[in-house]
Design goal:
The protein is an alpha+beta fold and 403 residues long. Helix content is 26%, strand content 26%. The radius of gyration is 21 Å and the shape is globular.
Length: 403
């Protein structure tokens, strides 16, 4: 919980909005984010998905203070104690029900990944049900990964930090982006019951060789043969890479939402119609590389193109090198910074380390009092990789320390 007399750390623009709020909550440092879309003539200030994230943080913490200016271009956030799904603090029957508005254009993974980072440091287990007309479980054009990739490519990495018990991510109802990319009416539940005082120090320096490829082809409200066409196209590219390749098929009906037609106010319309593919490659040392592609809301992309694009995306992720993929690197680096006061090391590809959001993450960590990163060339023969050294601050779970 932040000190009331502590001055906020100043940030500008909406860039890395979710990451900055997550780091502020973990470190207990108040922050002030200004100049959030100040020049937008139509939608200045914070967007609907950012408001949803602020509501989620308020639900899983106790004592947080959130102030938003009249124009929405300035946010003051003073974090409280991470309490999780504590009865009486917004949880009903041990479950927090978080409704995502229909105007949301981001995937639910935008909310899931920060919540997964906060959950190990909670005072009580975290059990959050995401519902509402705005829940999109597939990948989106904004760069969000699908819930399947969160489940298969990010959550398994928590085991490397000693966080592996009672963790479950359920997809209760699938959905793709609705018309104009807004809404989907899916339903997802995250159960995170393993809380720790401090994560273990990580040493991940050997990427190994790819030993298996797994994936999920999903479709909602469209014929099931779309899955077969995506799988066949993807396997045509991935089979030469490894014999142990298997892609599951998941077919579901499209969710319904209340109709906005005034002539038929009690009617319902289908939404979240589409299909997509999520694949994950696992190496002999436990490194994970993922790829995610979904059909656009406007349509026009045949399943064969989706399958080939996803397969090529996976090959690019593996070719980037390192022991951690680009989508999982922020999670790993954040947990390393929160671990015990020891030096952790992870090997990252140069393309991963030079990504804009990874550079911004390092700067934001330093601004919030976490350790800077050290770099050195790898000695394992992977010339395009860099070994990143991170000293944990030992902040850990304040709630468990108090308890």
């Amino acid at each position: 919980m932040s000190d009331p007399s502590q001055k906020p750390v100043l940030f500008t623009t909406q860039k890395a909005f979710a990451s900055r709020l997550t780091l502020a909550t973990l470190t207990g440092r108040p922050i002030r984010i200004s100049q959030i879309r100040p020049s937008s003539p139509v939608n200045p200030g914070i967007a609907h998905h950012e408001i949803s994230l602020l509501r989620l943080l308020e639900a899983v913490t106790n004592g947080s203070k959130i102030e938003v200016s009249m124009t929405g271009t300035v946010v003051n956030y003073r974090p409280g104690l991470i309490t999780g799904s504590v009865p009486g603090q917004g949880a009903n029957g041990g479950v927090i029900r978080h409704e995502v508005p229909a105007t949301c254009t981001r995937g639910v993974s935008y909310l899931l990944i920060p919540l997964c980072l906060l959950a190990p440091f909670s005072k009580a287990p975290v059990n959050v049900l995401f519902n509402g007309a705005g829940v999109i479980t597939s990948a989106t054009a904004a760069g969000d990964i699908s819930v399947d990739s969160v489940r298969t490519a990010i959550l398994p990495l928590y085991a490397k930090f000693g966080i592996l018990k009672d963790i479950e991510l359920r997809i209760l109802r699938r959905s793709n982006p609705g018309p104009r990319g807004k809404g989907g009416a899916g339903e997802v539940q995250l159960i995170f019951g393993h809380q720790v005082r401090l994560p273990k120090t990580l040493h991940l320096l050997n990427p190994g060789r790819i030993k298996r490829i797994r994936g999920v082809a999903y479709c909602t409200g469209v014929p099931a043969n779309n899955n077969a066409r995506m799988i066949e196209a993807a396997r045509g590219i991935l089979n030469p890479m490894g014999a142990d390749t298997y892609v599951f098929s998941d077919v579901s009906s499209a969710p319904y939402i209340p109709s906005i037609d005034k002539a038929n106010p009690s009617g319902k319309t289908k939404t979240g119609i589409g299909y997509g593919l999520s694949v994950v490659a696992e190496s002999s040392t436990g490194s994970l590389y993922s790829a995610d592609v979904a059909s656009p809301p406007s349509g026009g992309a045949p399943p064969e193109d989706i399958g080939q694009q996803c397969a090529h995306q996976l090959l690019e992720s593996v070719a980037a090198g390192g022991t951690v993929s680009l989508v999982a690197a922020p999670t790993v680096l954040t947990l390393m910074s929160m671990s015990s006061e020891d030096v952790g090391r992870v090997q990252l590809g140069k393309d991963v380390l030079s990504a804009d959001h990874i550079i911004d993450l390092g700067r934001d960590m330093k601004a919030l009092g976490l350790s800077s990163w050290g770099f050195r060339e790898t000695t394992t023969g992977h010339d395009d990789d860099i070994v990143v050294s991170v000293v944990g601050k030992g902040v850990g779970n304040v709630g468990r320390k108090i308890a």
